[in-house]
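quick one before i forget lol
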Amino acid sequence: MHKYISWNSNSIGSISCKKPAHGRKAAGRRAAGLRRAAVLAATALVATACTASSQGKEAKAAPSPRPTAVSVAERACKDPRIHWGKIRTEGKLIAVSQLVRVKKGEGAADITFHAIPVRKVTAGVAASGKVPAAPVFSSLERHMSLGGKSLAHNGESVPLPGAAGFGTADMTGKTGDYLSVIGVQVVEASFVQGCAGNEKSPVHGTVTTWYGKTQGMIKCGRNPGTQPGFREAYDRACEEDPQT
């Protein structure tokens, strides 16, 4: 850089160095360029901050994923209780005797009624998985509220008459056609219980059981009543027009 020397008449001998005019303009342009660069840099920083802030707000505003719905099977698996469905109760004939016909004026003091088995009813559980039988029967008994009557539990069968049959009855003074009958109330109940072991679905099952064993004699031509199995015995053996 060249230095220009100017003389000041008031201070002879002092020397001052001055930049040329075109140097000052270049310096101004450089300063202006630096200011523009600074403004652009600041603008970029502000834009970046705004973008980050906006993204943060969007992240906060995004709804959290909804929990996966729990299936009916999973709810049942978490619930160890037994849920009872349809329960059907029907009077069934278990055993009936031969038809005994006593004619008018016939001396028939003692007649032996022999037992003819009609069906075997045994209490049990049929299910899609393993379930303990005792709690199932106890739960059903509580659910049905039988007024003090007890359900037959797992493995119990309706007892049938042995070789003696229904025994010998005194038929003195009787006339008509007679039957001896054994009947019970047979119960079939469906249920659902929580998962057994490591199975992924609840256990579905059916209980078969019985209660209210009744034994008696009916006469053809008379209403057999509502005792379990009596109507069925009547319909099986009695003629429409009984002989007397």
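fyi The helical segments are 21-61, 72-78, 133-144, 230-237.
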